[in-house]
Amino acid sequence: MVLASMSQRQDIKDKINTFHLVDQEILAAVPFENPLAKRKDVSLKELVQYPFIYYSEKSGLRPQLNQMFNKANIKPKILIGAVEDHTIIGFVYWNYGVAVVPNLPQLNPNEVKLLHLKDKLACTQFTSSQRAITSCHQQLIALMHSYKNIATKIMLAKTSLSNKSVWEKTNSQM
Length: 174
Known about the structure:
Elements: E1 2-5, H1 10-13, E2 17-30, E3 41-42, H2 44-47, E4 52-55, H3 62-71, E5 78-82, H4 85-93, E6 99-102, E7 113-117, E8 123-130, H5 135-172
Parallel strand pairs: 3-7, 4-5
Antiparallel strand pairs: 1-8, 2-6, 2-7, 2-8
């Protein structure tokens, strides 16, 4: 069993079975010195004025990012390509450019400013490929589906609480 970003290559898709596991928000990463760092969110059109630290051709995320930029009719000026998230963040930290990266828990918000994308075009699908499935694999798949269901419920609860808080604040001011 392999857990990975979904491949865009048709020759691979035809040879493996996949299922959708989770979507991950894509964030903009900018150096703290960048004027965009003062904001909470940014559009791809605002980011494109800066050089990009981008995922290399070897990255499974590259085709999805290319598709995202193509849909927005934007061509980033790629300065450097890298495979690893932390390498990309390092180049952003040293002010070589900006990047779009998955919202990973191990990203340190003290190294670069992470901004939400206004475009809402970018989600990474993670999938699992399966050949011969052992009982251990079946248990792991069941655990991953449970995690996905729990994460969805938590996100819905947070949204509900957030909306309730806004509603309570609005009504208390009337």
